[in-house]
């Protein structure tokens, strides 16, 4: 249920509604929009006449029942776009378009630093790289672990780019959050509820990838878990879903981008690397995602993709990424969104 306040409602009117909800053991989530304040009702066991009770309070314009299962993630609850702070003042979800780039896995100091320097020079806003890798096969490279996190810290100091890296295990959240400016929850863990709750308790910016076969509603419910645990700083990532098509690794669901914008206030990033699985498709789909209204991209880049320990076939070369960034600027110009400049660049140590 939401209570939409009149444009003339005072701060006391809003506080009064929240107080009445408190008397019923419910929480009022206040969202201040440009025109109106909306108060979302959170809790279980609503009294039967709650709608009528709220409707007559001073300053209330109307009260509506929300039938969707997700609430905190819903645009009805919070009409204004959420902007997530992602380390060193970087913001995700505003007008500025962010580009996260880097290798699938952190493999070595040389590989990571070379990639970080190059993507930073090409205009990336964040550096990606997995230290803990979710691999389909237990025989495949599992990531460098804590050693990889330390290399990411060094790369951040050098390049000035904030770090996004994956966390897979609730027990590792504390350590990964020390390094990460943005925590990544991978597709395979979208419904790992203990992990979602633990990440929720950190309050740290978190990018939640869409599950391999998750509906939009299941994805938003996973975001709801993180938000319900106390963390409003959620970024969604469309990374392709499983369909009957085998010519691509996944089917990048571009329609999810405007759909999420309609259903939710959370920022949405597109991952054309995992979304296609083929290097030669990444640029087209990246540009299409930007045109479709995404708030940013996450792109796999490797200095020698053919020697990569994971996801080489979908990784751009350093030159390929530079080329993508040039064309992307034209598309962003057309849709009126400036490319975010790394706010941290001046703070980086050479
Ligand atoms: C990754 O980003 O390298 C990754 C494993 O992604 P996903 O969870 O989308 O497969
Ligand atoms: Mn990958």
Structure, described:
With 350 residues, the chain is α/β, with parallel strands linked by helices. Helices cover 35% and strands 17% of the residues. It is built from eleven helices and 14 strands. It has helices spanning 11-23, 50-55, 109-122, 146-159, 173-179, 193-202, 216-228, 256-263, 272-276, 279-291, 318-335; strands at residues 2-5, 27-32, 37-42, 60-64, 84-85, 91-92, 98-102, 126-128, 163-166, 182-185, 206-209, 234-238, 268-270, 296-300. Strands 7-8-9-10-11-12-13-14 form an eight-stranded parallel barrel, surrounded by six helices. Helix 4 (146-159) links the parallel strand 8 (126-128) and strand 9. The protein is elongated. The relative contact order is 0.14. It binds phosphoenolpyruvate and manganese (II) ion. Phosphoenolpyruvate binds at residues 104, 130, 134, 186-187, 209, 239, 274.
Percent of residues in helices comes to 25-40%
Bound molecules: phosphoenolpyruvate, manganese (II) ion
**Total beta strands:** 14
The neighbouring-strand order within the major sheet is: 7-8-9-10-11-12-13-14
Oligomer: single chain
Supply the helix-strand structural class: alpha/beta
Uncertain runs: none
User: Strand fraction band?
Assistant: 15-25%
How are helices and strands ordered from N to C? Answer: EHEEHEEEEHEHEHEHEHEHEHHEH
Distance between the termini: 53 Å
Q: What is the alpha-carbon Rg in Å?
A: 21 Å
